[in-house]
Write a structure and sequence with these properties.
41 strands, 511 residues, mainly beta, 57% strand
Length: 511
């Protein structure tokens, strides 16, 4: 019996419109005078943390979800100057929507301080609103003169608010630079952003910015509240002053960080920047921070072996001791030798080009890697008399072409005491230095640590006192009786014979 064949016919499915996966978002706003405002909003998806910018009046298709929108709305004030209104909204987008900001709802940020208003005035204010979608902070900061900054209240727990008020002496009363930096934080945007401080409740910090080792004396100094989880960041207070100078700040108790930036010439070329560690300041206490200390030298990078290759990154060759940061730039001649045979030699500059050094290790044995670094910036003239104009390193170590490891050599760092604001010692005095090593973790024990001083740029040398103190050493240098400079050379030898010799020319001066 033959089987009948059946034809299968495909029946087209009815097309059912799927719910749109995207909606349209538009942002608009009006100024404090009720006129149409032009601005750019910052938008974040609260679930993914992704961000984008959106011009007012422009529509954008976005995925459905919950978004936070931050905006700064500019308005022309009665005094003819532009004021700023910060706003933030958390919106759920299940359909297309326009998010509107009304600057007329903004409340003025006011900050008071118990000072003589004839001698001190509030120079400016900063405020920031922020959100933390998926743990990613998105913030918007505005700055304006006192009385020119407004915020639109919003009690949402997804928002945070920070402010900073900056006070200075009137110009006629200025001696040493001085500032008051008053700051605070709240969850949500407050309905009454009015605050008052008493000087007795503040901490005091003094920044001593010296001259000598930096490429430029013109210095931007910045003091800012340290970033903290769940809080908005603020740029802080800034001033540009010619070093050397003393800068006194009275600040709200809490965590702060100070920074300096060297700026060169009429075009304000940034040539270097240094940051202090984050400090905790307490009510009624006084603190100090020193920038541009003497004895700038190599700070960070050590050579390493990976397989049959040695690699070294000659960066951070002139660094402010005790600070993080860098200065541009240096030019370094790097040479790798085995005995008297030169394997590779190369001149490297931090200004463009390839900034690393690598060479093959032909066989196991003792090698020498030497570095001769000098200050260099193609857009800046190195000042005559600059401190630390040159630094050299000579590392002798045993290496073999196998595995991957940091080489057990070291960099020597110093902090000198008793120097003046120009990093100079008195003739015939004794300069004490704290010395420590930047070395590989687990490096062999140091067998000997010696230091020599030269008062003629390295032509002759005198060995100086070095005493073990804690994890470092105390060095005492008897200074010459004549005006000039002191060059320092350290020699560190470990129990396995690895040797690190480092020289910092004109480490500090003698006045």
């Amino acid at each position: 019996m033959a089987l009948a064949s059946a034809a299968v016919t495909a029946v087209p499915l009815l097309s059912v419109p799927a719910e749109a996966a995207t909606v349209t978002l538009k942002v608009t706003g009006v100024t404090r005078k009720g006129k149409k405002a032009s601005f750019t909003a910052s938008v974040q998806n609260t679930k993914t943390g992704s961000e984008f910018r959106l011009r007012s009046g422009v529509s954008k298709k976005v995925a459905k979800g919950t978004y936070t929108v931050l905006a700064e709305i500019p308005s022309l004030g009665a005094d003819g100057y532009t004021n700023s209104t910060l706003g933030a909204q958390v919106v759920s987008l299940s359909r297309s929507r326009t998010v509107a900001f009304d600057a007329r709802k903004g409340r003025a940020l006011t900050v008071g301080l118990d000072v003589d208003k004839a001698k001190y005035s509030q120079w400016g204010q900063r405020a920031a609103v922020c959100t933390f979608g998926a743990g990613n902070r998105m913030e918007l900061e505005a700055t304006n003169s006192a009385g020119g900054l407004f915020v639109i209240p919003n009690g949402s727990g997804k928002l945070a608010f920070s402010y900073l008020s900056e006070w200075h002496p009137q110009v006629s009363t200025v001696g040493a630079p001085e500032t008051y930096a008053l700051t605070g934080y709240s969850k949500g945007i407050p309905a009454k952003p009015s605050y008052s401080f008493r000087r007795a409740s503040l901490a005091k910090t003094t920044l001593y910015v010296r001259r000598g080792p930096a490429l430029s004396r013109d210095t931007d100094v910045r003091l800012a509240p340290a970033p903290a989880r769940g809080k908005c960041g603020l740029w802080g207070v800034t001033d540009r002053i010619s070093a050397p100078f003393t800068y006194t700040a009275h600040v709200t108790p809490g965590r702060w960080q100070s920074e300096t930036y060297s700026m060169y010439g009429p075009n304000s070329i940034g040539v270097g920047g240094w940051s202090s560690p984050v400090r905790s300041y307490a009510k009624g206490k006084s603190y100090a921070e020193v920038f541009n200390r003497a004895v700038w030298g190599p700070a960070r990078w050590l050579p390493k072996v990976s397989g049959r290759a040695l690699s070294y990154y000659p960066d951070d060759l002139f660094a402010d001791p005790g600070k993080s940061g860098s200065e541009c730039c240096a030019k370094a001649a790097v040479t790798f030798r085995k005995g008297s045979r030169t394997i590779k030699s190369k001149v490297i500059t931090q200004w463009g080009g390839t900034r690393d050094f690598s060479a093959k290790i032909p066989s196991a044995g003792w090698y020498t890697l030497s570095v001769d670094a000098r200050r260099y910036h193609p857009q800046v003239s190195t000042p005559a008399g600059i401190l630390s104009p040159r630094a050299t390193i000579s590392w002798k170590f045993y290496a073999k072409p196998a595995g991957s490891a940091r080489i057990p050599v070291a960099l020597t760092r110093y902090i000198a005491s008793g120097l003046d604001s120009a990093n100079q010692a008195a003739p015939g005095s004794t300069t004490g230095l704290s010395m420590w090593l930047n070395a590989v973790k687990g490096a062999p024990k140091v067998r000997t640590a010696t230091v020599q001083a030269s008062f003629d740029d390295g032509r002759t040398w005198r060995r100086v006192s070095v005493r073990k103190r804690g994890s470092g050493w105390a060095v005492s240098v008897p200074n010459a009786s004549a005006k000039g400079y002191v060059t320092l050379r350290s020699t560190i030898v470990d129990v396995k014979g690895n040797r690190s010799v480092q020289t910092i020319y004109r480490a500090y001066g003698i006045r």
